[in-house]
Give the backbone structure.
Amino acid sequence: MLDVNRLAVLVQIAYDGSITAAAARLSITPAAVSQQLAKLEREVGCPLVDRHPRGVRLTTVGAALATHGETIVGQLRAAEEQVQVLLDRQPTQLAVGTFASAGQTLVPTALARFRHQYPDVALSLRDLEPPDGYGLVTSRELDLLITHHYPGAVLPDAHGLRRSLLLTDPLCLVLPSGHPTAARDRIALKHLADHEWISGGQAVPNRMCLEHLAQQTNVRVHVAYETADYQVTLALVAAGLGVSLVPSSLLNGLEDRRIAVRALTGRPPSRAIYLVHNKQPNPLAHAMTGFLARSATVR
């Protein structure tokens, strides 16, 4: 039988992508991580990682084993939590994962309300860009994940987790206020085909969304400026360098007169923001979902 502790090390390596980062997360030395990995590879009978200059990448066998490891580690942690419940001991920590723009808009108020009601709970927040994070919930390294899905992107399999819609965040067209089409309230994508766009890089969800919309309308768009940071996107738009699609939640209170906010014609695209947790979340995760729902309602 495979050693569970070594499986847990492999799972951490899969999350962090390097021996050094996994060691820091596990509070052990990189040499100890390498030793546990080598022993697991001997148990399995084949390499589980490929080493490269920037870290390690799991082999096909390593990735499959890590997926099973997530479930096994999660079940063990669930058993520990159940024992604590039976002993009338309340959970003392909550780990939340979120993507950057939710961390800017939804999370701060929810965390502040949680901290006020549960002052003795150890809170932690982890920055994760979708689709990352589902495995961390499966292994119960995260109690709650805030993630998103854009049109045209693949929605990951929840793998037995519970995923619920927190809010629908419409995507708005942002363009320089002096742009020739800015006088219109609604603008067709075809009228922007010859303009330079600002979006994420290849395979980034908002880029996949833009390309999906362009394909639906038989329009070819040219992405001249690639950035995953919406604040950089708005700065580039304000400088008159291009147009973009930006979630409306990031435009509340926007006072920059150099930027015009408009809607696309037809059915407006939106990104869906989800909460992901185990089917039986601990009471603290349940409480945090309530605070996040309040933040989503009043945004």
